[in-house]
Amino acid sequence: MIPDHSNKTLAQLLDLSGRRAVVTGGAKGIGAQTARRLAEAGADVVVADLDLSAATMTATDIANATGRTIVAAFIDVGDTSSIVAAADAAMSRLGGIDIWVNNAGIYPTTGPAIEATDEFIDRMLSINVRGSFAGAREAAKRMKSGVIINLASIAGLSATAGISAYVMSKHAVIGMTKVLSREFAPLDIRVVAVAPGPIDTPGVQDQLAPLKAAGVDVGAMLSKTPLGRGGVPDDIARAIVFLASDMAAWVNAETLVVDAGSLAR
Ligand SMILES: NC(=O)c1ccc[n+]([C@@H]2O[C@H](COP(=O)([O-])OP(=O)(O)OC[C@H]3O[C@@H](n4cnc5c(N)ncnc54)[C@H](O)[C@@H]3O)[C@@H](O)[C@H]2O)c1
Asked: Would the pTM of this model clear 0.85, i.e. be above it?
């Protein structure tokens, strides 16, 4: 079913011309840089975000830089009807969906698990887990073939105390990636995930604000990796372009850890 690409050049394999992509949480951080790199590789992109004005600014920037068709759309991945609406918008504005990136996610600190409320857990799981599942399902319903890429985390492969809800949500995303890869393979849809280490984004800066206020050198903290520097959104965006492209035509169900080797034991 998946064709052999042995006769294509590397440039042809990385070329996403003619592909239509949706990036959730595409206004800022990893999502914005992913949308930019997908467009640079030739894709038309829907930048879908809770923050429509930021999505519109990002979409305009990317369109000006790449000349691709870039559409801003509202999405709240905690609300399935809005996921359906964004998927329908991609179908009508771009003519189809070939790449769906489940990037939108939240990571408020849980605090001690013994004090975590059901409401807090429900909110985390509804956005990070159900939102990704519903995104994958609605994308698969509309795709003729393609790839779904989920944003997991090294928190989905390890256990950091104090962020239990996030850890649970990202473990679930990795399990979801495996099972959906089985279910969607007959539809010619690959399902893969990326597990980033800490990446300097607006969301991470928000989380680190209390530490910064307490005088902690957050920059030094983030740069403590085996490669001696912290991660930036483009480190993840490049991995996503690889997974979205025919370079990764035989990569399926896998979670690619992109963390400078920090998780290695
Ligand atoms: N930054 C990291 O260190 C890191 C590490 C591992 C995994 N991740 C994962 O990568 C993804 C992106 O992280 P980031 O750091 O770029 O985030 P960020 O907080 O910097 O940006 C997230 C974007 O998603 C949007 N968003 C938030 N809730 C939404 C919702 N309900 N529906 C639609 N859009 C919503 C925000 O408006 C924002 O534009 C997340 O899934 C996160 O868990 C991030």
From this structure: yes
